[in-house]
Write a structure and sequence with these properties.
Layout: H1 2-14, H2 16-34, H3 36-55, E1 62-63, H4 64-82, E2 86-91, E3 100-101, H5 105-116, E4 125-131, E5 137-142, H6 155-167, E6 173-177, E7 180-185
Parallel strand pairs: 2-4
Antiparallel strand pairs: 1-3, 4-5, 5-7, 6-7
Helix pairs in contact: 1-6, 2-3, 3-4
């Protein structure tokens, strides 16, 4: 049973890679033509992010502190890709950063928000990461869906749900209310 669970986790982690890399290589390609210095900085941060993803491929749970540190490099990539059209704010108390979370979870939720919502000067996308009253890490964004002909595969959210299902009896909660899309993540023991 343990071997089957590990195999399942490994498969779920590998699903993250192609989606992430495709989006960022497209951005890097455009930057090389526009501004070589920014392209180099983008590539350095992309390397940091990718290194983090590879190093944590064998980790099922990492500290929230590690995930938040990783997110800083990822937010840089988002800023280059979207400028002031996307605003990410983080308000997490230091006292809970030694608790656990599946790696790359926050990155997936930020990526989903930017992928499925309008982010423009007139309609900026606001993503907020904070601890809610129940003690769960909450990732919320203002809901301003991009009209899509092709329905979403919901692969990112399903991946997160499945990893939590394997690692814990606690499950993430997903809500959409009052113009906000929210995902509440339970913190895990290491």
């Amino acid at each position: 049973k343990q071997i089957a669970m590990q195999s399942q986790l490994q498969s779920l982690k590998l699903q993250l890679d192609p989606h992430f890399m495709f989006n960022n290589f497209s951005t890097l390609s455009a930057l090389i033509e526009e501004d070589k210095k920014v392209a180099l900085s983008f590539l350095e941060n992309l390397s940091r992010v990718y290194r983090y993803m590879i190093l944590n491929l064998n980790n099922d749970i990492i500290t929230l502190r590690e995930e938040l540190k990783f997110i800083q490099a990822y937010i840089y990539l988002i800023k280059i890709r979207h400028g002031d059209n996307v605003n990410v704010s983080i308000d997490i108390p230091e006292t809970i950063t030694n608790r656990g979370i599946p790696p790359i979870t926050l990155q997936l939720l930020i990526e989903n928000a930017t992928k499925h919502n309008v982010a423009s000067g007139k309609q900026p996308l606001h993503i907020r990461i904070y601890q809610n009253e129940e003690g769960k890490i909450t990732v919320s964004n203002n809901s301003q869906r991009i009209p899509n002909i092709i329905p979403s595969t919901r692969l990112g959210l399903e991946n997160i749900r499945n990893r939590y299902r394997i690692l814990s009896e606690q499950a993430p909660e997903i809500k959409e209310e009052h113009g906000l899309f929210m995902v509440m993540l339970p913190l895990l023991d290491l």
